[in-house]
Amino acid sequence: MDTLAFDDLKLFSRIAALGSLSAAARERDVPVSQVSRALARIEERCRARLLHRSTHGLALTEEGATFLDYCRRLTATFEELESEFTASSGSPSGRVRIAASSVIAEHVLVPSLDGLRQRHPALRIDLDVGDRLVDLVRDGIDLAIRTAVALPDLQVARRLGTLDRALYAAPSYAERHGLPARPDELLAHRLVTNSAATGLNDWPFRVEGEKVTLTVDGDWRGNDTALTARMVLEGIGIGRLAVLVGDPLVRAGRLLRVLDAYVDTQPTPIYAVTASARLRLPKIRACIDYWSEWFARSPQGG
Length: 302
Hints:
Layout: H1 6-18, H2 21-28, H3 32-46, E1 51-54, E2 57-60, H4 62-89, E3 94-100, H5 102-119, E4 123-129, E5 143-146, E6 155-163, E7 165-169, H6 171-177, E8 191-194, E9 202-207, E10 210-215, E11 220-222, H7 225-233, E12 238-242, H8 243-251, E13 256-258, E14 268-275, H9 282-297
Parallel strand pairs: 3-4, 3-5, 8-11, 8-12
Antiparallel strand pairs: 1-2, 5-14, 6-14, 7-12, 7-13, 9-10
Helix pairs in contact: 1-4, 2-3
C-alpha cells in the first residue's frame, strides 16, 4: 500500500462519523469534489472499497470498519505525541472545538474568551452553538459545555459551576395581560417554551413548603434558548430563562421577575464533557481549568 498522509486518516474518520461527503466538505470548507477525490485516493491506496455509497448515505464495508479503527487509534496516538511535546514546552496550543447552548455561549464563553487568550495565546477556539445534544465523535467536538450529563462509555465530565433559572415577562406583557399571583394561574397566561430541550418546560415551584412541578405547553415555542429569551423580551408571553440572561434585563427595566415567591430556581450543574482519551491533551485541560476558575470567581457562574 502506498503511503497515506496523516490528514487522510483524519479525513476518513470524519467522513465515517458524519456519514456524508458533503458534511465532511462543509466542515472543512472545501468543495465536495475535493473530498470525493481524497476518498477515492484513500481507497486506491488501500486497494479496497471502504464505503458503500447509496441513496441513503454512506456505510462502512468490513474493510472500512477495520481501516477506521486504525485511523482512530493512529490519530489519537499522534495527538498524544503532540501533547507530550506541547506539555514540555509549557504552552498549550492548537484549535479546540467547543459545543454549548446559545445562552452559555453568549453569556459565559464569549465574555471569557479574551481572558483565555491572554492566558493561552496559542489556543484557537471554534464554537458550535445550539441546544441540541451533540455527539462528540460524530460532530468532531473536543469539549461540550452541558447542563445535563448522561455519559456514554469513554467520556468524562468535570463540574464547572451552576445555572439558575427563573420566570420572566416583559413590562409590555404585564400591562396587557397582568401577571399571575400563584403558579396555578399560569395556565391562563400565554407562555413561551422550548421545543428542542423539552425538559426546560417542567417549571418547578415551592407552594406552602411543597415541591410542585408544572409541565407547560407554550403558546409560543422556540428551538433555541436565545430565541425563547427574545420572545419573552418582545412581550408575547411568560418564559423560564437562565438567571444570567434574565436578571441583567430586569436591572435594565426590560423584564420583570414572575412568581418570585414561588419559583424554585433549581441550580443546575454545568459540566465540561470530553472523551476520556482527550483529557490528557494540554489544550483540553487548559480550557477546562480556565473555565472552572472563571465560574468560581464569576457571580453568574454560581
